[in-house]
Amino acid sequence: MTNKQISLRINSGDLAEARRLFEATATERTRVTWTIIIGGYARSARPDDAFDLFNRMLRSGIDPDDLTLASVLCGRDVSPVQVHARVVKTGHASTVLVVNTLIDSYAKCGLFDESRALFDGSRERDSITYNTMIVACHRHGCDERAVDLFHDMRALGLRPTQYTFSGVLFAATALTHIGLARQTHALICDRLDEAETLFQEAPERDCVSYNVMITGYARVGRFVESLRLFRELQFKGFDRSQFPLASVLSVAASRADLGMGRRVHAQAVVTGAPSQITVSNALVDMYAKCGELGSARAIFSMHVDRNEVSWTALLSGYVENGLYEDGVRVFAEMRRAGVATDRVAFASALRASAGASSLPLCEQLHACAVRAGHASGAHVACAVLDAYAKCGRVLEAERAFRDSRERNAVSWNAMVTAYARNGMTEAAVQCFESMVRTVGANEVSFLCVLCACRHGGHVEEGLRWFGRMRGEYGVEARRDHYACVVDMLGRAGRVEEAMRMIREMPFEADEAMWTSVLDACRVHGKRELAEVAANWLLKMDVRDGGTYLTMLDVYARAGEWGEVRRVKGLMRAHGAMKERAYSWLE
């Protein structure tokens, strides 16, 4: 209660009364009490008093924490040298909050070299770290370095803030780089089209201008334009070591274009770029998304200065390629190495536990996420929900959904799918209806509710929602929506209706649709329709052994042994084999 009163007095500007209350709490002072009063004096431009209080705190035997150290450094005239020594002594030298405050404090005291050395030596950086250093570079005449840091920040995927753009705009102005200033201004408003116009109209374009546009296009998924400008950039005679290779590698990763990724990798080797952490991370991500996990691991292992982005890229790569145990192993290595695990790492590890259907692992990861303060964020909460659902724990999935700070379309879809996967069709439909009223429904949402109706045999309910998609909600049915409805009708024995839908839909049926029709015909004894489906599948040069076995069963039941021999011959000719089932014990 005393801490609250002191804080209220400081916030109202009555520092004297706050000090009186503080001095009256000699026997009740905690680290929080000291931090509040120190921060009050530092923010009130009384750094000497703040530092005296800090020393009193140390003499009283109470060790400072991150917030205390950051508070004492808030004063403009405080020399950071003594505080920095205390930071190192108490083991807070790698904490982002403290490092950021030290960088800012050194720069404001005119000790720019120390500020820059601290930035270069920091192993973990966030957007505030970059913002602080960009502004410091501009204030000390290193405007080109400020612009370089801006590009590094974007390549790392850190979201720029108004402070970032402010620093870059000042740097661009000091460099008389009007084109960069105007492009940056356009990016502030997320108006890439305007930035493109400014780029096209610029009388002279330098490497920085190209980098801004190539990275901007890559971030919004306009890969064709990004690659076109990169090809143009290569013939301009600029220094190749300044090329935005990390952004181009992200394009190769998004398109799973291994050939392009290898060509960019070759350029990176020539310029020595793989030694840069941003390029190294992009290479790991590219190879992982292209399924080349050996190459991804090799590049990861070669780089000494690995950060959380490096670890998360490798972890996500294993999980996305179905190597769940390897993904969990990387997550455990990451924790043992003392690397900060962010929400993306936790979400990937939880997806691994879901893929392996390991409830104990899911519970352990959930507990770690709670301790790290990530469990209620939408990204991690959705992964927790999905993991519990795949382990059959619907109640825990519901709790994760309720505890989520932000319920977006992704989390609603995951909850609908959780009910459907566990045979709770009515709950899935009710959840979908609540979603429609709350956040609206998209094409993925409709697919989720159609799958729920399919698994539960609620054919009329499924057809009703399928019919309302376009008319009421403006959502166009895709191939997977039609495939779900065809399968739903087939399972219910309404194979003729499924065939009618195939004939009337706006695209050709694929192997999955005809296979579901064939299987429905086998179950419900539709001999003539089974032959139609089988003929279509044979025309498609099917390689799945399971499909051939279904055909064999249909013909054998009908006593057509000649057709049985023909299908067996085709099966041998195509080398089709049924994939063996497997199970594991934990």
From TrEMBL:
One of its GO terms (molecular function) is RNA binding. PANTHER family: DYW DOMAIN-CONTAINING PROTEIN, PENTATRICOPEPTIDE REPEAT-CONTAINING PROTEIN. The gene is PCMP-H36. The lineage of its organism: Eukaryota, Viridiplantae, Streptophyta, Embryophyta, Tracheophyta. Keywords: Repeat. Transmembrane segments: none annotated. GO terms for biological process: RNA modification. InterPro entries: E_motif, PPR_At4g14850-like_plant, PPR_rpt, TPR-like_helical_dom_sf. This is Pentatricopeptide repeat-containing protein. PPR repeats lie at residues 30-64, 126-160, 206-240, 307-341, 408-438, 544-578. Gene3D superfamilies: Tetratricopeptide repeat domain.
